[in-house]
Amino acid sequence: MDYLNYNLKDGYKKINALYELNNHLMTFGLDIYWRKKAGIILFKLLQKEKYFENKDSFIYCDFCIGTGEFFEEVVNRIKGVSFEKKSYFIGLDFSFDMINWVKKKKVYKVDNVVLILADVGFLPFKSNTIDFVSISLGIRNLRNPGDVKHDDIFAMRFNEIYRVIKTGGYFWGLETSRPPNKIIRKISDFFTLYVFTNIAKIVSFDFDTYTYLAKSMLDFFDADKFKHFLINIGFKEVDYHLMTFGIVSLHIAKK
Ligand SMILES: C[S@@+](CC[C@H](N)C(=O)[O-])C[C@H]1O[C@@H](n2cnc3c(N)ncnc32)[C@H](O)[C@@H]1O
Fold first, then answer.
1. Which of 116, 202, 208, 221 could form a disulfide with 225 if both were Cys (CB 3.0 to 4.6 A apart)?
2. Which residue has the least CA distance to atom 5 on ligand 1?
3. Strands (E), the chain
């Protein structure tokens, strides 16, 4: 399949110490805040629902783990409540270098971590087995391989995500979004096109990747459209939180 070859060949193979720094510089550190805020919201939700109280075990899985920054945030938050429970923390990515990076960095402070090299479109899990699946800042990647949008492939990958989540389990998606206010949207587009991505290009000397990044951000759904996309996939309850005027949204979808 061409789209798969594209991702495997060109996607995210140059991982080095500059990669994370670049992400932080490009967002002026906001990405650290977004992950932390998302972690707090999700943890509060689970506590409110008393999710862990009636369970002896659970499985949390972060897809498109990248260098593991969101995985770290969630694992380090829920490890306290998961104490004495049989829990598994799974990180998944189709880039060997990313998985290797997470393994070497060992950001999480728990032992029961499994790292898996796989494509989100072909998940090596049985149906109805995972309690929570998260994707942080990797959702757009599932839709835009190269410079073409593939809504059919995007839906196929989300059908697969839906398949593996337990009934009553959650999908959590943190992603850049299109601010609902038109003026803020224009300012945000300006920053995306001329500020954020140019900083990244200069720091990384990687012009192609970051030109693609800007395009995929401008081309992506707004929060409401993504909510309806998730409902069409089959999720029963879908809600979202906007962060930083809607530059980023956190979707919470229950199966
Ligand atoms: C921007 S990075 C993720 C960042 C990370 N989750 C975080 O919060 O810092 C996007 C990741 O998605 C992975 N990816 C893209 N398409 C994928 C797919 N179809 N299956 C698995 N991983 C994929 C890439 O290899 C890359 O590591």
1. 221
2. 66
3. 57-63, 86-93, 113-117, 130-136, 165-176, 237-243, 248-254
